[in-house]
């Protein structure tokens, strides 16, 4: 294993990113699920930057070249992240629609009650 400036830089970058993610988690700026996902990703980047031969071993086990292995894993992770985000957006849209309906019904009841109150006076 040959340690170069680039490997040290990537390792330090991943450690800084993990620290930043933990700080965001402590401030409730990110949920536990996303914090675990990002910390895992940064750990993988840090470990593979220090031990790049691990990628060669995994790529050979998968029967691919290293760069194709990295691209496929990255695409898989991005697609999984997009799917997760899209499902969360869909959930938020459904909740927003329910909230708007509930507020509309409440506003209608208030309007009817005000109209009845003014009619009796």
Topology of this structure?
Layout: H1 5-26, H2 32-50, H3 53-62, H4 66-120
Helix pairs in contact: 1-2, 3-4
Keywords summarizing the entry:
4 helices; 121 residues; single chain; elongated; mainly alpha; 2 domains; 88% helix
What does this structure look like?
- The protein is mainly alpha-helical and 121 residues long.
- The protein folds into 2 domains: 1-51; 65-121.
- Helix content is 88%, strand content 0%.
- It is built from 4 helices and no strands.
- Helix 1 (5-26) runs antiparallel to helix 2 (32-50).
- The model has no long low-confidence stretch (mean pLDDT 90).
Task: Summarize, please.
The chain has 121 residues and is mainly alpha-helical. The chain contains four helices and no strands.
Query: What structural class do the secondary elements suggest?
Result: mainly alpha
Which percent band covers the strand fraction?
under 5%
User: What is the overall number of helices?
Assistant: 4
Radius of gyration, whole Å: 25 Å
Mean pLDDT, as a whole number?
90
Please tally the β strands and state the result.
Answer: 0
Helical percent range?
Answer: over 70%
Number of self-contained structural domains: 2
Unreliable runs: none
End-to-end separation in angstroms reads 89 Å
